[in-house]
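S2.1 Query sequence (TetR/AcrR family transcriptional regulator)
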Amino acid sequence: MRKTKFTKKMILDKAAKFVQTYGFDELTTRNLADYMKMSTQPIYKQFDSMHDLKQALVINYFAKINQSFAKVDYANGLADFALHFVVYNQKCYELFLHIFFYPKKKSTTCRTIQTISQQFFYDLIQADPKLCQLSTSQQQQLQEKYFLLLIGSVLTHRRFIEVQQEKVMLLQLNDLVDNLTQHIAKQN
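Output structure tokens follow.
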């Protein structure tokens, strides 16, 4: 009988599906191994601990968003990324909810999500030649407000789709991002 080799990617993909269904706090080595119909050994072969796996899961989530965004030629920086973020998260809406909303997470998981998401949005701002010239405090304000705008937009987008007003929502989102960046840049 041929043994299946469980790769890091395979485990992360299954862990993401597990989290979408059962949540972060239910993601234990034993539960994931049962879900994947295997022993815990392949998990520990790829990850030092469950904390490492959860951290890799969140990093992988942001990396996939970034990879799919990089494949498209966008000219409007944060505004275009906001549109991409909203549309992307409709495809993995349950995972999005578990990462950002469902409150039942251990504090270490919450800190990991916060740290990784802050770094991701900081890097996004640094990639924009106009925005990276803002002061550190302005960049931090922009990062916090932009992040809230994105998260709220993903939730709002569901409602706009239901009433067939998606194009209206996307235009409004573009205006909101433009106004936000101009407001932050004007502050001293």
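The chain has a mean pLDDT of 81. Residues 33 and 39 are 6 Å apart (CA to CA).
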